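hey can u check if this looks right to u? its 107 residues, i copy pasted from the old doc so theres a chance i mangled smth
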Amino acid sequence: MNYVLLIFGMAVVTFLIRSTVFMLGERVAFAPLVRTALGFVPVTVLTAIIVPMAVTPHGGALELTWRNPQLIGALAACAVSALTRRPLLTIAVGLAVFFLWQGLIVR
C-alpha cells in the first residue's frame, strides 16, 4: 500500500475525531465514570511505552538482570517518584542512575 495514502488516511481520521470534540464542546457531557477513566489514560500510555523499553532494551528476550541499565534507572525513578511525588526530581534521578550504571557497572 502507498505509505503517503496511509499516513493521509490516519491524519484525516485523527482530525475528524479531534474536531468533533471541539465542535460539540459543552453539548457533550461525559459520565463521571468515563471522566475518571480518561484521567488514567496518560499513565497507562506512558507505562505501555516505558516498561517494554526497560525490560527488553534490545528488543529481544527479557533482560531482568542487574546489568540492564534501563531497568535499574526505571526502578530508581519509580522509587523516587513514590517517595517524593516530584516529576523533575524523578526524571533527574532516573537519568543519573541510568548513565552512571551504564558507564560504571556495565563496562
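The chain is about 75% helix and 0% strand.
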